[in-house]
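Protein details
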Amino acid sequence: KKGKIMGKIFYIMGKSSSGKDTIYSRLLEDSQLGLSRIVLYTTRPMREGEQEGREYHFTDEACFEKLQEQEKVIESRTVYGPWTYFTADDGTLELAENSYLGIGTLESYEGMKKYYGEESVVPVYVEVEDGERLRRAIRREELQKIPKYEEMCRRFLADAEDFSEEKLQQAGISKRFLNIELENCIKEIKNSIQKLQ
């Protein structure tokens, strides 16, 4: 009897404006990879055009606390609002059957790793040189109806702290995927995922 190949969780991380959201969407759409999505929970109200179970599972603080009591909350973060975003073990994640694609922070990656085991969670760290990243962030902000440059700068500085070299090393992240040219970067990540599947 052959040993069962366990699925993996490929976890995308990167500073703001590194292109990680685009890369995440493109890898999810790739039928050759066949990765399933991890749907996060949030206590924030649903926005226009969102759908339950598609963008998020929309829930409330009481449900979050209940899942926490049951030790089913894998990682959580509270953001300005205050709203809580969290990953929960709700029985939908079948690592024996599927591989998954996640996206999040270094902290949420550490939470996933602690919960599912180091061998099941594969970091995919996307990197863009700081000057280029700032130029991309400014271009993106310029397209908004009301550009929020202060918020953009605050996020830029917070990222330097959140994804410092020291923290990346502590998390055991050595491999970087340089997103200089999007298509090449996606191809490189895809190859690396396929080797592990």
Remarks:
- The helical segments are 20-29, 61-69, 106-116, 130-142, 149-162, 165-170, 182-196.
